[in-house]
Amino acid sequence: MSSQDSKERVRQKQRTRNALLAAARELLTSGRQPTVSEVADHAGISRATAYRYYSAPEVLAQEAILDAVAAQFEGLAAGMTRGDDPARNAEDLVAAVLRMVLANEALFRTFLTLASAGDGRPTRGGRRVRWIGAALEPLASRLLPGDFDRLVNALSLLAGIETVVVLKDVCGLDPDAMENTVRWMTRALVAQALEAG
């Protein structure tokens, strides 16, 4: 096989993967939890091929959801960590992630359901931890040992679907009140960490 043939094969595999993920997202957004066969049929790809890529519908669904928002989040995080005020960077980042989660709420709720039904091992990426850590990095030297990680972990509670479940479902807040609340909590946590440092 020539180098050109090899490159085309890689591109074809990526196109097939992308088509399966797009089809899965369409079905998930409609509130369904599709099987691999249903996704293959929806994508117009043979079932045998689909099963070579994804043997379990849960894995396919989780990857489709994460793939849908990962690029958006990465761009968002990069833009939020450039200012001179790390506390404000963290506040803006947490609020922006909340808005993005709300914009993709159906997908995230499906992801939460799928992740909760697993075998107990963590199935989520630690992207939010990495983003918040980058936003707060300039504060690390001003905090007591261990406090930086504790602050990043605490703020990670404010940047995901779990936050929406509590603030919307339990507390009954609308999106503006939710954003005001996570901004207030972020400021309070950063101020507390700096005061202790």
Write the layout of secondary structure elements.
Elements (H helix, E strand, L loop, with lengths): L2 H27 L6 H8 L3 H7 L3 H24 L5 H18 L1 H12 L10 H10 L10 H10 L4 H10 L4 H22 L1
Could you explain how this protein is built, in words?
75% of the residues lie in helices and 0% in strands. It contains ten helices and no strands. It is globular and about 60 Å long. The chain folds into two domains: 1-55, Arc Repressor Mutant, subunit A; 57-196. It is mainly α. Helix 2 packs across helix 3 and helix 4 (57-80) runs antiparallel to helix 5.
Keywords:
single chain; 197 residues; mainly alpha; 10 helices
What is the CA–CA distance across the termini?
A: 61 Å
Low-confidence stretches: none
Number of helical stretches of at least 4 residues: 10
Identify the overall geometry: globular
Approximate helicity band: over 70%
What is the rounded Rg? 20 Å
Describe the sheet with the most strands.
Answer: none
Derived from helix and strand composition plus strand pairing, the structural class reads mainly alpha
Overall average residue pLDDT: 85
The succession of helices and strands, N to C, reads HHHHHHHHHH
Overall number of domains: 2
Share of residues in strands: under 5%
- Number-wise, the strands total 0
